[in-house]
Amino acid sequence: MISLPSTSWRRFLIEEASRQGLLLTLDHASRFEAYALELLFWNRRINITAITDPQKIAVRHFVDSLVPSAYIPEGATLLDVGSGGGFPGIPLALFRPDLRVTLLDASRKRVNFQRTVLRKLGLENVICIETKLEDLLQQGGDQKKFDVIISRAFAAFDRWIPNAIPLVHPGGKLIAMIGSIEDSALQRLNEAVREVTAAIECIPYRLCSDDLGEDRNLLLLSLKRT
To answer: Where along this sequence does the record place binding of S-adenosyl-L-methionine (predicted)?
Structure first.
């Protein structure tokens, strides 16, 4: 069993990231370790995550959050919808300081946790908004558009993606991080976004480390430029 804090945990995180083609430095690993410790501390008081095993935090929260990095353009503005414990937005901002990240969550307690983590990690390329996606639109959020909108375990992708499209620049992307994909849900999404979509792509990947292995998918939706 690998514990926190420890050199073994930091080395484990780096090794697991490398399996996905992600190059983490020792500095990255140390900052992720601080994030994990804060997560465990807060989780004793409020329900942020059901995953509390240090190895599973490394793989299923941090490494998983970084997988979409390869599909996000340099210097992009990124909205993380239903960010919860900050996943995937905070790990992406830590790994990709070129990104300008906005975390969106309706829970004040979780937003307070996110802000604590941002201060601890010294991340200045992230802001937090305490509201729902539909309320953001009603509040005039459609005047603020993003290059990429991403979500992990927020809601069924065929529901949140059509609602989020008005917040994406023409030619931008929406990314759903999901487990299995039902053909019926994918068909509903295709029908709902056909007129504004240039392409929909499903990219399977596997989080692999012994019994921590898990099959996952990135659903990438690219919008037309005009």
So the answer is: 82, 87, 105-107, 133-134, 152
